[in-house]
Amino acid sequence: MPADPGQAAIRFEGVSKTFDAPGRSSTRVIESIDLDIPRDAITVLVGSSGCGKTTLLRMVNRMVDPTAGRVLVDGADVAERDPVQLRRGIGYVMQNGGLLPHRTVVDNVATVPRLNGVPRRQARLKAMELLEVVGLEQGVGKRYPAQLSGGQQQRVGVARALAAESGILLMDEPFAAVDPIVRRELQAEVLRLQRDLGRTVLFVTHDISEAFHLGDKVVLLQAGGRIAQQGTPDEFIESPASDFVREFIDADSRRLRVEGSRVLDARGRVAGVLADGPHAPTHTPARGSR
């Protein structure tokens, strides 16, 4: 049955998570979160280490199960799904790419279709198409992960995630290990893919600049796994919800200025590109690359 286009792609209802360790007191990492992840948009979970953002993301594909509450994907409780089958239908990109070192690039990308019963030739043809989608030449498909640069490995990881069927991509700090130039290229690639393919992306980062650059919706988590604020990048910059939010985004000093069609932050870094030229509002992060 097709999903209701007005329905959230992912919904967290009263979700909490407590980890128990032998000989230690319990640790609450998520505290009663209600959150909707809109369909065909990029939602970014941002916050410092230990705030629960990765734990929340991993609840979507049942790599972590909540202690309380439930997680819905397309209106269905993931707790009622077989976790292996669920994971095969949801794209997942992690920081180190997670590629299988003993398999060629094309066979890495074809992994999920093959596990789902797609014939080898058909799966490999689809994998070659996906390599082109993420900006890689087909010749890369014959190589092994160790023969690729860090940026190429991450593109392969994205291609493999795109092979999943649900249209959902989970991205857990995927660009944290690459240099700033490659990181910016990969961010642009995510924006292009979301624009062209219309996927639902749930993205985790600790970098507020990256969150504002990529996110249609940004969710800032604070210690204890609580939502400090959620909304558009504009809403964060214009109306921080608390001193914690204001300090985290450094709203007072993070003045954006326009040079030509580029939006620069206080450190002179490119924060975005304006869709409507140099007279658009200076506080607006990049949406023009969509």
Describe the 3D structure.
Strand 9 and strand 10 form a beta hairpin. By secondary structure, this protein is an alpha/beta fold. The strands form three sheets. Strands 6-7-8-3-9-10 form a six-stranded mixed β-sheet, with helices on both faces. It has a four-stranded antiparallel β-sheet with strand order 2-1-4-5, with helices on one face. The model is unreliable at 277-290 (pLDDT under 50). The protein contains ten helices and 13 strands. Helix content is 31%, strand content 24%. The two termini are 29 Å apart. The longest helix has 18 residues, at 180-197. Helix 5 (120-133) packs across helix 6. It has helices at 53-60, 83-88, 105-109, 111-115, 120-133, 150-162, 180-197, 208-214, 233-238, 243-249, and strands at 10-19, 27-37, 42-46, 68-73, 76-77, 91-93, 168-172, 200-205, 217-222, 226-231, 257-259, 262-264, 270-273.
Topology:
Blueprint: E1 10-19, E2 27-37, E3 42-46, H1 53-60, E4 68-73, E5 76-77, H2 83-88, E6 91-93, H3 105-109, H4 111-115, H5 120-133, H6 150-162, E7 168-172, H7 180-197, E8 200-205, H8 208-214, E9 217-222, E10 226-231, H9 233-238, H10 243-249, E11 257-259, E12 262-264, E13 270-273
Parallel strand pairs: 3-8, 3-9, 6-7, 7-8
Antiparallel strand pairs: 1-2, 1-4, 4-5, 9-10, 11-12, 12-13
Helix pairs in contact: 5-6
Short key terms for the protein model shown above:
alpha/beta, six-stranded mixed β-sheet, four-stranded antiparallel β-sheet, disordered C terminus
